[in-house]
Amino acid sequence: MLSILFAAIVSIESGGNCLAVGDKGKAVGPAQIWEITVRDCNRILGEPVFRMEDRFSLAKSEAMFEIYTNHYGKRYGMPISDEVRAKVWNGGPTGPNKQTTQKYWNKIKAKL
Questions:
Q1: Are 73 and 88 in contact (CB under 8 A)?
Q2: What is the pLDDT of residues 27-68, one digit of tens each?
């Protein structure tokens, strides 16, 4: 079952299309995951758990979302807020510090 936050992200990122391709082919799947995010999740886990094709899986995309946002979001305080998670997902590890992620958060917040 999708978390409410992740469902909102999927809605914004791909409209729920697991085969979506964006960012000139660099981001794919329901959560529009880049290859570097897959590699980063595997690095965080310390083993190659995810493959590139896992980006097209809704369940595996949500698992990567949780790993990535938990890892980088905790530096902004615990518990990790939905806003921090969304901004990390959109802007990377320093996403919450970037002005550019506020517009993304506003879109996500409207879906929650």
A1: yes
A2: 999 999 999 999 999 999 999 999 999 999 999 999 999 999
